[in-house]
Amino acid sequence: IGTYAFLHAVSYYAIGLLIVELQSPWAGFACSLTFPFLCWLLLRLDLYFATYFEVVRGGLLVSGPILAMISATLNITEDQATDSGYKFRNAHFFLVPIIFLQHTLLILNIVRVAYAEKGSDSDMSLPTRFRAVLYLDVFG
């Protein structure tokens, strides 16, 4: 869970640095896709899911940094905005709560996945969704 949180933090830092400080939205867009995609690859490597569940989880992972990139890009365009740009310059007021809600759902999803299930033949509980646990049987 720490690796996923670190990749999200690096993604948000890169978005802030590239879009807000350097005013380079295309580089921020690339970072907002690259880091969450790496996070999704790590989740896919570590955990075992059905196909539909992977798509939903991947959408949850990517949506936060992409929404932050959109919010930051619309916020910096207020200086160079034309008449049509003023409509969206305060988009961060409703995008930021959506990003926080997305992270809450992501954390709840990871907690649900990491939940330990009780085995049928013993009193032991193991998180059976992790791939390493699927092949580990130290008591059998």
Layout of secondary structure:
Layout: H1 2-21, H2 25-46, H3 51-76, H4 92-113, E1 117-118, E2 125-126, H5 131-134
Antiparallel strand pairs: 1-2
Helix pairs in contact: 1-2, 1-3, 2-3, 3-4
Précis, in short:
With 140 residues, this protein is mostly helical. The chain is built from five helices and two strands, in the order ααααββα. Strands 1-2 form a two-stranded antiparallel ribbon.
Q: How can the largest sheet be summarized? A: 2 strands, antiparallel
* C-alpha geometry: elongated
As a whole number of angstroms, the C-alpha radius of gyration is 19 Å
- How far apart the termini lie comes to 28 Å
Number of helices: 5
State the helical fraction.
55-70%
Number of strands: 2
